[in-house]
Design a protein that fits this description.
The protein is α+β, with helices and mostly antiparallel strands and 167 residues long. It has one domain: Aminopeptidase. Helix content is 29%, strand content 36%. It is built from 4 helices and 7 strands. Strands 1-2-3-4-5-7-6 form a 7-stranded mixed β-sheet, with helices on both faces. A hairpin with a 2-residue loop joins strand 2 and strand 3. The radius of gyration is 16 Å and the shape is globular. The relative contact order is 0.15. The mean pLDDT is 95.
């Protein structure tokens, strides 16, 4: 697998991944009817950086990194990750999260925060805990899951540590 920064031309391959995940309504708080134009702005244009994972030249995963809050919170980044349905269970999300932490440090971020993780997204919650993210907040009934109704959303956080220059 290869991971690289996304280019505008990649969005045609990112779009089916984004569309399928968002249309399912089970993990992201984007409107289920998000259009391709809206999705491109959300995923490719608004973030500071967007990356893709390729397997045999096919995009099978993608993530973005952006500043979570401006001003005094600008040292904390936020990321979002998506893996195609056909590539799940192969460690791609873990690969992307580990890559994103290195990139975040390189961009000067000191911490990473996931703002709104549906508690029903058990695979993601388990993975983030495995990668040393802590659940630091719980938003009761904040996520309206299409089949399970209102479920809690978690705020997950990881301090990325000091840069070698700061030791």
């Amino acid at each position: 697998m290869n991971i690289r920064e996304a280019i505008d031309g990649d969005f045609d391959e990112i779009w089916p991944i984004f569309r399928d995940i968002v249309n399912a309504g089970e993990t992201y708080a984007y409107p289920r009817d998000t259009t391709k134009v809206q999705a491109q702005k959300i995923w490719l244009e608004a973030p500071q950086k967007t990356y893709v994972v390729e397997n045999a030249g096919v995009i099978v995963g993608t993530y973005f990194i952006k500043t979570n809050q401006a001003g005094p919170g600008a040292h904390v980044c936020n990321c979002g990750y998506m893996v195609s349905a056909t590539a799940r269970g192969r460690g791609i999300a873990s690969f992307m999260c580990e890559h994103s932490q290195k990139k975040a440090r390189g961009l000067g971020y000191k911490a990473m925060q996931f703002n709104f993780v549906a508690e029903t997204n058990e695979g993601a919650v388990r993975l983030w805990h495995k990668l040393a993210f802590e659940t630091v907040g719980r938003l009761p009934n904040a996520f309206n899951h299409p089949t399970r109704g209102f479920v809690d959303a978690l705020v997950m956080y990881k301090w990325l540590g000091l840069d070698p220059d700061e030791l």
